[in-house]
């Protein structure tokens, strides 16, 4: 039987991130051959990942990065909060975000990132011992500025793409505003006609029996107030509820935003 030294086990662990016992077993099976042992660990990792694939992933973290005119945000789920706060797990997510900057996409990059990181994810599942999934990913390129904000250690992630005149401080506040107030749309013009029609129907039902001209005026007022609830540019501003983003940064245009929360249902 080939003698497996502690130093070679340590070397394999450093190369793969696998546990000490798994490394020793792989080296024994490979007769001390480092490359063969790595191959054995990869095969073992795939098998372990397949066994864990049905286990629920209800925890996780969001990571984001901005580099020049590019940015990426990724969400990776795991089974427990114990792993979600683990340094190795968070380093893994940050690496995926960094790698995502090179994806040839400007928008939803989920499928591309899942494909690119498949082997790395399998290896991490084998190392950590929990099921994991790359739930969603964005890769943006902009003509303006991109800013992001991670709240509660990455349980909530926000990213915004803004063109025009807006300071870094205002963009940082915009991210925090979106994290706190959960807007659905950017401006009233973005709201789908069917959503407006539904709100008008609800508003009209609340004032049944009044003259038509009064009903129209009340419904119009209620819709305007509703825009102030669902449109980020119309919501009361996080720093001063007497104003709004479109007044704080009148020369800026929000092109897109994303707000992700670990516990939310995905559409």
Layout of helices and strands:
Elements: H1 6-16, H2 20-29, H3 34-52, E1 59-67, E2 70-78, H4 81-84, H5 87-100, E3 107-108, H6 110-116, H7 118-128, E4 133-141, E5 145-151, E6 156-164, H8 168-181, H9 193-205, H10 212-230, H11 245-248, E7 252-261
Antiparallel strand pairs: 1-2, 2-4, 3-4, 5-6, 6-7
Describe it.
- By secondary structure, the protein is α+β, with helices and mostly antiparallel strands.
- The protein folds into three domains: 6-52, Helicase, Ruva Protein, domain 3; 59-181 and 245-261, Tetrahydropterin Synthase, Chain A (2-Layer Sandwich); 192-230, no CATH class.
- The chain is 47% helix and 21% strand.
- The protein is built from eleven helices and seven strands.
- It has helices at 6-16, 20-29, 34-52, 81-84, 87-100, 110-116, 118-128, 168-181, 193-205, 212-230, 245-248, and strands at residues 59-67, 70-78, 107-108, 133-141, 145-151, 156-164, 252-261.
- The strands form two sheets. Strands 1-2-4-3 form a four-stranded antiparallel β-sheet.
- α1 (6-16) crosses α3 and α2 (20-29) packs across α3.
- The longest helix has 19 residues, at 34-52.
- The relative contact order is 0.12.
- The mean pLDDT is 90.
In summary, what is this structure?
This protein has 267 residues and is α+β, with helices and mostly antiparallel strands.
Looking at this protein, list some descriptive labels:
alpha+beta; 3 domains; Helicase, Ruva Protein, domain 3; 4-stranded antiparallel β-sheet; Tetrahydropterin Synthase, Chain A; 267 residues
């Amino acid at each position: 039987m080939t003698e497996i030294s502690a130093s070679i086990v340590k070397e394999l662990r450093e190369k793969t991130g696998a546990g000490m016992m798994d490394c020793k077993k792989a080296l024994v099976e490979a007769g001390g051959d480092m490359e063969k042992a790595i191959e054995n660990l990869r095969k073992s990792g795939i098998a372990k990942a397949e066994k864990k694939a049905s286990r629920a992933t209800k925890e996780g973290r969001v990571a984001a990065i901005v580099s020049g005119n590019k940015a990426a945000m990724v969400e990776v789920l795991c089974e427990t909060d114990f792993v979600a706060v683990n340094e190795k797990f968070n380093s893994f997510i940050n690496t995926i975000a960094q790698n995502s900057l090179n994806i040839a996409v400007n928008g939803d990059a989920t499928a591309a990132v899942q494909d690119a990181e498949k082997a790395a994810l399998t290896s991490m599942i084998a190392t950590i011992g929990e099921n994991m999934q790359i739930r969603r990913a964005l890769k943006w390129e902009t003509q303006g500025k991109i800013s992001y904000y991670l709240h509660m250690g990455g349980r909530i992630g926000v990213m915004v793409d803004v063109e025009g005149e807006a300071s870094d401080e205002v963009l940082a506040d915009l991210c925090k505003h979106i994290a706190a107030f959960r807007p659905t749309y950017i401006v009233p013009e973005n709201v789908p006609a069917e959503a407006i029609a539904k709100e008008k129907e609800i508003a009209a039902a609340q004032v049944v029996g009044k003259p038509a001209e009064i009903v129209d005026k009340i419904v119009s007022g209620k819709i305007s107030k509703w825009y102030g609830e669902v449109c980020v540019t119309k919501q009361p501003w996080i720093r001063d509820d007497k104003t709004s983003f479109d007044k704080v940064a009148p020369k800026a245009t929000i092109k897109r935003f994303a707000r992700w929360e670990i516990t939310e249902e995905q559409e």
